[in-house]
């Protein structure tokens, strides 16, 4: 595996991925659209494979999936970095745009396609899932 690193906009929070992501998906849920003003490319990783340096702020709410989701962001610049779901603490979501080399990953699926706006550019070569897919094993 190529080591993947990333950081927030101001650099106060940095992170390292110690293993390959389990999944790379473009999410079109309304929450991701609010966070990114578009679909958001998210990496699905094991919690133990994510090493974070710096302080994080959190915001928790119930997602469309019904799960309680905590989103973590830099308290200085506001960059949204990570997410975690109460029912699956063994996994974390990493926003791919914060990688130092976001081209090092390629999404394989569009999720929450039912919520995508009519103008969304959905790659026809990627699998489409209308709502929340099952987590990778």
Automatic annotation (TrEMBL):
Alphabetically sorted, this entry's keywords are:
Lyase, Metal-binding, Zinc
One MF term in the entry's GO annotations: metal ion binding
- Pfam families cross-referenced by the UniProt entry: GFA
**According to the lineage, what is the superkingdom?**
Bacteria
- Residues of the CENP-V/GFA domain: 4-109
Which Gene3D superfamilies does the protein's record reference? glutathione-dependent formaldehyde- activating enzyme (gfa)
Q: Which InterPro entries match?
A: CENP-V/GFA, Mss4-like_sf
UniProt family annotation: Belongs to the Gfa family.
Q: What is this protein called?
A: Glutathione-dependent formaldehyde-activating GFA
């Amino acid at each position: 595996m190529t080591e993947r690193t990333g950081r927030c906009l101001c650099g106060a929070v940095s992170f390292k991925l110690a293993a390959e992501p389990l999944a790379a998906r473009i999410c079109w849920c309304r929450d991701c659209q609010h966070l990114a003003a578009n679909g958001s490319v998210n990496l699905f990783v094991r919690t133990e494979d994510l090493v974070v340096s710096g302080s994080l702020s959190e915001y928790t709410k119930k997602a469309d999936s019904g799960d309680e989701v905590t989103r973590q962001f830099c308290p200085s610049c506001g960059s949204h970095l990570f997410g975690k779901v109460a029912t699956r603490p063994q996994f974390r979501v990493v926003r791919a745009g914060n990688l130092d080399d976001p081209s090092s990953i390629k999404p394989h699926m569009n999720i929450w396609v039912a919520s995508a706006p009519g103008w969304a550019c959905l790659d026809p070569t990627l699998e489409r899932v209308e709502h929340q897919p099952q987590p990778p094993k």
